[in-house]
Design brief:
Blueprint lengths: L1 H6 L2 H11 L6 H16 L5 E6 L1 E3 L15 H10 L5 E3 L8 E3 H17 L7 E6 L7 H14 L12 E3 L2 H25 L6 H19 L8 H8 L3 H7 L8 H5 L1
Parallel strand pairs: 1-5, 2-4, 3-6
Family: Belongs to the fatty acyl-CoA reductase family.
Catalytic activity: a long-chain fatty acyl-CoA + 2 NADPH + 2 H(+) = a long-chain primary fatty alcohol + 2 NADP(+) + CoA
Keywords: Lipid biosynthesis, Lipid metabolism, Membrane, NADP, Oxidoreductase, Transmembrane, Transmembrane helix
């Protein structure tokens, strides 16, 4: 697939992409599918496992609370909402925001690798672990939880008071995007231009719109994943290693985490 992408011209590649994405919502999901197919092929000769995390969020404890190495995807939208740049989100307020801290995912990968090394190799078998939220919350409840936190601990560089509206009606979302995102951005950019500074907000809002639309598929739908393998794997961790390697965080404080 990489050879095909590097050898085709842009026009042909766009046509090819449209056909390949006929059954998946975006290239992100498609590439994940390809990666799992490669692992399945190698499972006939190597012990293989697949760890499937949901939306990866900042760390719970390690290397420090709140650590993350990028601001793309849902993290970028969360920061934009905290700064008051994002006022409208494209998602269903009643669907679960399935997130998992990055250090929990890391621990799960380590424990899966350990278990795989102790298990007799079976050709063609791939161990699959769904690393998903252990304290599920709807999008609406997350916003309700974060509003008082943003008042208590405001984000640096705020441009507007935080107030988020979410809807799964695309027409309404599009209209509100123009009213609450594009028009204010144009006004502020005009002020910046007249004051001799570089206008940036309209360009930023375009990028945020693309991200919001891409994530809208996941925000407007909900999936339920089996965590049987996760529970079984955690039960095999010894008491001496539990504090260091356990990826159970069902008793953590949501308010303190988001703060």
């Amino acid at each position: 697939m990489i050879d095909v992408a590097e050898s085709l011209d842009e026009h042909t590649l766009n046509i090819f992409t449209a056909k390949c994405l006929d059954y998946v919502p975006n290239t992100y999901t498609f590439s994940k599918n390809l990666a799992e197919s490669v692992i399945q092929e190698y499972s006939s000769s190597l012990p293989c496992a697949i760890v499937r995390p949901s939306m990866v969020y900042p760390s719970l404890k390690e290397p420090m609370p709140g650590w993350i190495d990028n601001v793309y995807g849902p993290i970028g939208l969360a920061i934009g909402g905290g700064k008051g740049i994002i006022r409208i989100g494209y998602c269903n307020k009643y669907t679960v925001e399935d997130t998992v801290p990055v250090d929990i995912v890391t621990k799960a990968i380590l424990v899966v690798s350990w278990k795989l090394g102790l298990t007799n190799f079976t050709a063609g078998f791939t161990f699959v672990l769904n690393c998903t939220s252990q304290t599920p919350m709807t999008h609406q409840n997350v916003i309700k939880l974060c509003r008082p936190i943003l008042t208590e601990v405001p984000v640096e560089g705020m441009v507007w008071t935080t107030s988020q509206t979410i809807t799964d009606n695309f027409t309404l979302y599009y209209i509100l995007t123009i009213l609450l995102h594009i028009l204010p951005a144009m006004l502020i950019d005009m002020i910046l231009k007249f004051s001799g500074r570089r206008p940036i907000l309209v360009r930023l809002q375009r990028k945020l719109y693309v991200v919001n639309r891409a994530l809208g598929y996941y925000g407007c739908n909900e999936w339920k994943f089996s965590n049987v393998n996760s529970l079984t794997l955690m039960s095999s961790i010894s008491p001496d290693d539990w504090n260091m390697f356990s990826f159970d965080y069902s008793n953590f404080n949501s308010k303190e985490y988001y703060k």
